[in-house]
Prior knowledge:
Layout lengths: L17 H26 L1 H6 L3 H8 L3 H22 L5 H21 L3 H5 L2 H25 L5
Helix pairs in contact: 1-4, 4-5, 5-7
Amino acid sequence: MKYNLKPITMTTTNKPNVAYWIIAVIALIWNIRGVFQYLSTTLLKDEMMEAMTEEQIALMSGLPMWHSIVFAIAVFAGLLGCLLLLLRKKLAVPLFFVSLIAILIQMGYWLFATDSMVVYGNEAVIMPLLVITVAIFLYYYSKGASQKGWLR
Length: 152
């Protein structure tokens, strides 16, 4: 009897499909947009307020400092998670989780502890729900990619 034995290697042949790369690039663009939004609200606050109504200015000025800190954590953890997803690193998963938790805190406060719905109407709900949905998707997608062996 002849056995056809192959050596065991430590390299993985588990490579992500094309959809993985498309999702990772779109997620990166989405999170870069989030970083720009954060930077505009902190660095260009005066310029932004020139285009706002008195009610909007009062709402934005009344946000506590921790809200801005949580916003920063959300967007920068998400951006770093996307970069690590593109590099196929497992550390993307906990970063997306941190981003998700920060988003839930930030958006929860925005929706339920402020008058955002009175001041902005439906706009106050639509974007936060979209941001939450994308954050949930990215966390579970990265977790699934890790379980499939796509992340190292």
